[in-house]
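anyone else get weird line breaks when pasting these?? whatever heres mine. first is seq + tokens for prot A
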Amino acid sequence: MGVGLLLDMVESGLGDRIALGGRESGLTHADVVAAARGGAAVISERDPSEVIYLGRNGPGYPQVFFASVCAGVPFVPVNYRLGDEVLAELIADFRRPLVVVEERYRDKVAGRDQVLGLDDFLAMARSSEPLPPLDVPDDAPAVLLHTSGTTSKPKIVPLRHENLQAYVFATVDFAGAAPDEAALITVPPYHVAAVGATLTNFYGGRRVVHLPDFDAEEWLELIARESISSATVVPTMLARIVDALDGRVAKAPALRLVSYGGARLPLPVLERAMRAFPEAGFCNAYGLTETSSTLALLGPEDHAAALASDDPRIRRRLESVGRPVPGMEIEIRGADGNPVGPGEIGLLFVRGAQVSGTYLGKGSVLDEDGWFPTNDRAWVDADGYLFIAGRADDTIIRGGENIAPAEIEDVLLTHPGVRETAVIGLPDEEWGQRLVAVVVRDPRTDITEDEVRSHVRARLRGSRTPDEVIWVDELPQTATGKVLHRRLVAQFERAQERS
């Protein structure tokens, strides 16, 4: 049955509970399952190789997702922000897809075969005879996701039914949410966090409210009006929310959990957010497309204990991504391929039933023991807390010494005058590469280059002090706030060549 088993469980145990939308007018879990089964019939009649979803994150997204699951056809949410040419190239990777498109983006797929408007699809799903349950193999692909492509051309990751089931069963209790709980989702639909949030909230019985286009003031208004109990954001969103509050305590009487992830969250922003939402716990979630979403969590108790502690070892846990979720194993390996001890930086390998470990057209990249290479540099402390030191591809080699940008970025982000930053290496005749800190200032401060350099020098070895600081208004980022280091390197290398 694959993921369809989750729908059966939800229909029988949570049918009357509101699943999507407002408290008074939303769709029940039974409504969503019925639409999924009717939508499966619509899909089956067209016999596509995949179902491509082109639109924002909203109530239509989970209904098309679940319809694809019931039809046994891989679901492919794609980035609606892509240019027409890039989008056409992406769709061309698939043999015979059915494209379900939100009306505002229909022009992007004009002239293509097998296109249905989202509203039309949902109307047809509600009027169609449901497709009888299919026996979908557990190892069949349920979702095909593109990686973020921060260091290379995006790859396509098949997340199998068994991967998604393993993630849900390990992290959520069936019907574990109270009837009045509601989640506000703002993450983009083509990111693995959207897939994970859709499955876990539906299975847990939590009502979901979507905010398709993020706006800090609208987010705060929805939190209050819809009595939101949990919310998922990326760090850039949280920064805008605390800016909008401007030191005020938010009106969020029901909010008990704020989850963030996808990129580093500056410590000053986290501290301001915890003051703005004093009744809410905070959770840092770390995961990859290839791991079916979250593989490690720093939970609310960890956040509270670290923020209140005077012990630097415990306080530093605010910079970690916590410890592995149930069913996940992690291993840090050195250059010789052998595991390293606590405090030593190496490459992070992960293993577990939720790990896909394959790429479409490339096959498996798991080693003989089932370990997946994340390409993230990382280390663990003596208590098992995981710290991410950045992508291996972003390592800077200065004077023969390997330097992880994340080490310097973490220090820079503790300065109240630094809102966002990325450390890159640019060509240097003497050192091979020189360290350059690209910084977005907090507009309420007047930080100087000397202050930036002094701040780092006081906390790290001299070889980690930036040789240069470049001020920018914004950093190139993915939709989840992950900085595109290579784009910065290319931009400033060209500027250097012209000078």
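and prot B, same format (seq, then tokens)
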Amino acid sequence: MKHVLILGGDGYLGWPTAMYFSNLGYQVTVVDNYFRRNACTELDTGMLYSVPTLIERAKIWHEQTGREIKVVIADLAQPEAMRRLFDGGVKYQWAVNEEFTGIPETVVHYAEQPSAPYSLMDYQHADITLVNNLRVTNNLLWAIRDYARDTHLIKLGTMGEYGTPNIDIEEGWLEVEHKGRKDTFLYPRQAGSLYHTTKVMDTDLMWFGVRMWDLKVTDLMQGPVYGIETEESAIDDRLKTIFNYDEIFGTIVNRFVTQAVVGYPLTVYGGGGQTRGYLNIRDTLQCVHVSEQNPAQKGELRIFNQIMETFSVNELAELTQKVGNRRGHQVEIKSIPNPRKEAEEHYYNPTYQGLQDIGVKPHYLTEEVMDRLFEVVEQYRENIRKDVIFKGIKW
């Protein structure tokens, strides 16, 4: 069995990825330090339902499937904590078989502070974001360099690295002709938050590791994700992933559906023309899996744009309103002064065919998909707190 190491395995995407690979028969080890849970407690953000600890989740998974997900609780911003995952010194907080599983063939790196608003709350949260995200990535690259140069690193980047340029967005690379000569460069980045800036720096760090040490890296430029349910979470209700609906950690589709369910006007920032690429949580799992099955080569930084379709904020609000009204909710759309410094009307034409070319079968955000998301959120209506939905973090 191939061994997959998932960093940030307690998160919105990390835990579903762990179950997905385990269900396919992989050896899976997850690592987390509960950063997101602790941040949600510190900032008093909204979670739609309570979620068992990572150790409890792994036990439930084993009880229900007979499959094992090993758990390590560690702060990967500490270099030695990262290195122990590769040098045989790892200590499992939960495992059926505690023997060291060996060097992983694949590392999936989610272990970062994931929120743009969090990164710009104040200087302290900016510092936490920069230090955590860059140290974890740097520590990982050095550990792979020193112990596991054949390991394939799959890193979750973000489409936010590109910003909204007035030219087409290619998949990571751009051929440039200048004064009669041509070369290929990383596509120019213009991040719109400190969080997204750390992701740009991640890409630069990985490009350095690829060029200097012949590492194998796939960088997935992911758009905002929506949804809760996966095939694996359907096994037991306690296996559902974390679901935030506040402006700090909640993604826009999940936020809008939650707002609609409790009669909170959909918060459209400014003109609402901001356009981004989106994907279903099921497609995140597909994308990571096909990337694992088709690894980058030694000395290659392979970049995919991980989205399946594009929407403006207004289009998402209108779809939410249409489905919500049909379900008996009186959904109001309300434009509010934009707390972010961003273009509200802009050109946006990204290329995103690469992942489909190697096997991803997209799920699209249809009325039926939105309807099912409403159905799930409605089950937890009594847990939703209106006071945490919008706090107006500005930059």
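btw re prot B: The domain at 3-386 is CATH 3.40.50.720 (Rossmann fold). The CA atoms of residues 144 and 269 lie 42 Å apart.
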